[in-house]
Structure formats: C-alpha cells, structure tokens
Write a structure and sequence with these properties.
binds manganese (II) ion; 52% helix; 371 residues; alpha/beta; globular; binds phosphoenolpyruvate
Length: 371
Amino acid sequence: MEFPSLKSWFGDVEHYPYIIAGPCSAESEEQVLAIAAFLKSTGRVNLFRAGIWKPRTRPGTFNGVGVRALKWLQLVKSEYDLRVTVEVASPKHIEACLKHGIDVLWIGARTVSNPFSVEEISEALKGVDIPVLIKNPLNPDIDLWQGAVERISSAGIKRIAAVHRGFSPFERTLYRNMPKWEIPIELRQRMANLPVICDPSHISGRADLVQGVSQKAMDLMMNGLMIEVHSNPREALSDSAQQLDFNQFSSLMNSLIVRQPTVNDKGFLNQLEELRNQVDSIDFQLIELVASRMNISERMGEYKFKNNVAVLQMERWLEILRTRTEHGTLRNIEPAFVERLMTLLHQESIRIQTAILDNLKVSDDHWSEEE
Ligand code: PEP
Ligand code: MN
C-alpha cells in the first residue's frame, strides 16, 4: 500500500508539522467563525476541524448540532479560505458532508473500534476521492487500527492518514488516554509512508498537558498535530477541560521545537531510534503500573492494620514467586530474573505497608490518649 504524503494531498506548499485545529464541536455560527478567523490569522493551520455529530460515552450530554453546522463550515471555507474536516460515523454522514463540500473526513475512535461500521463507511466511500483521517480504536489493538486503514484503502481511497489519540486507560492515569507511543510507531513500521498525526488534546484531556504531548509527538517525528481550540473553552459544550484558548494555541505554535529526522539512504527513519522510542514508552507504562501496584499495597496496609493481620505472610509470598516465575517462563523470561524483580517489588511493598502500620499505630495511640 502506498500512501501519498500530506503535503501532496492538495498540492499545498510544504508545511511541517501539518496542523489540524478547531473546536471539539461546532456550537454556533458565531463560535465557528470566530475560531476560524483566529486560526486563519495564525498562518499555521492546514485544516479546520469541528465535530457536528458527537459520539458521547454517556447519554444526555451534548451530541452535536448536526447537518445545519455544515453551512457554517462552508462559510469557513469561503470567508477564511481554510479547508475543513468533520467526523463521520455512517454513510448518511458521508453523504451530507459530500453534498456540502467538506474537504476531508475523519473517522472517530469509537467508530474505528467497530469493524462493521468501518466496513459500511468503506462501502459508502467507493468511487469517492476524498482524504480520510483514521483515529486509533479505543483499545490498544494495532490490528484493528491497521484493519481500518486497509478497509478504507480497499474502497479506493488513497489519501489516508492515521490519527493517534491515545487509548482508554483501565485506571485513572495522568492522561485522559494513555499514549502508548509504541503503537503508532509500530503502525508506521508496518505501513510505510502512512502519515501519522498526533491528537494531543484527546491524549491529554487537560489543556495544560497539551504542550508536552505535542512536543513528544514532534520528537517522535509524527507528521502533524490535531488540536482542539475554542474561543471560550470554559463554556465549551464538549471536552471543555482540554480545549486550548487562542493564547494557548499561539504559544504552543511558537514553542514547538521541530527536529529534522535522521533517515537512512532509503528515506526510512532510523530503526534504532524508533526502537528506543518504543522502549521509552514501555518503561513509562512500567512505572505507571508499579505506581498502581504500590497504591494497592497502601490499601492492603490499612486493611491489615484494621484486621490485625501481619504484614508479611510467607505462604502468600511463595505463591507470588511461583505464579510469577511460571508466567515469566511462558513469556521466555528467565525465572531467576523474575524472582529478582518480584523480590524488589515485594520489598518495597512491605516497606510501604510497614510505614502505614506505624503511622496508623501512632494516630491510634494519639486518639486513645485523648479519651
Ligand atoms: C473528537 O475529535 O472530538 C473526538 C470525538 O475524538 P475521538 O474519536 O478521538 O474520541
Ligand atoms: Mn473532542
């Protein structure tokens, strides 16, 4: 599969990184036009984004203004000479967008998670020549993401880019969605030339984290950024915490440090660097997991104190060692290594629980003295 570069999509002048920006949702004509006027004035934006059908996790939240916003987007094109992109989730959405001259379609994370929907969209795109952005699915399933790219490509669509928006975490983490950078890097290795754009807004979930995630994406040689920008984020009807205001967007654009990629003579990114980037991302997740484990240790410390249970129980520790080394063997990890690793984790866990117990004892004595 060959994928044309972003710069060739509309024969634009070279523009790196490729910037897609706009509100999470189109809310009113005034809001859309005010944001478009500002973004145009920055001279940095390649594509204006706005959601008009919003797939929401919970019912009863704002689910978009629907087709009437397509007229506002036509105004963005005619008044500000910006190309526009809209999220589509069904053949009906595609038909409405094509009728209104939308330049680029994007398929959201929830839709990509469902191969039936992607298939329907792919059917509807047969014979249509329009660029399509494909977000990663909610879960970190690279095959599902690659499959969506393949399905859309098999409809005859050539201009395709993947959008990395992070993956739903099973626990609360610093980010709204875990970046798991090793996954977009692997997608890029599997599908040479596929442009990959990062969506730091949905990864971050918080405006103050967008800058760091954007810089990370640049350091990993992502081809562009898709950023949510709102004239008044606090009043936004969706994703209010993560949208940037105008000043934040301008300072982000001014602060980005863009590196030149190290490429080999065939034009591929340096393999070793790509592998190191994957390892970095996995180490980051290891630390997050260790932090979750230590949190649970604290809760166990409290429980043991309340129920008068000793911190260390030998049979439990032996069972931990046995099951972990067995599992390690299945994954080709030396038992002696797993044992060392588990011992380290266990020692730290015991240290934390003992500290909690000592603390609780002190406050317990304190209370009994007061009585
Ligand atoms: C969006 O871009 O506003 C959106 C709904 O994104 P995602 O599909 O990544 O959740
Ligand atoms: Mn959003």
